[in-house]
Amino acid sequence: MPQMAPINWLFLFILFSLTLIIFNIINYYLINPINPEDSSQSLQKNSLNWKW
């Protein structure tokens, strides 16, 4: 089995590191946070009186 040159290992490390960083950045910025003002209107409080 032929051995890999160190420059190839370095290239693979850089490639996978950049892929991981780009993937995390994309996932971080694709999330649209919900504003608290909008969520308070949509929430309805259902109170239940438990009679045991």
Number of helices: 2
**Proportion of beta-strand residues:** under 5%
What is the multimeric organization of the chains shown?
A: single chain
Which bin fits the share of residues in helices? 55-70%
Structural class: mainly alpha
Outline, from the CA principal axes? elongated
What separation lies between the terminal Cα atoms?
Answer: 74 Å
| Largest sheet entry | none
Order of helices and strands: HH
Question: In words, what does this structure look like?
Answer:
The chain is built from two helices and no strands. The N and C termini lie far apart (74 Å). Helix content is 62%, strand content 0%. With 52 residues, the protein is mainly alpha-helical. One of its GO terms (molecular function) is proton transmembrane transporter activity. One of its GO terms (cellular component) is mitochondrial membrane.
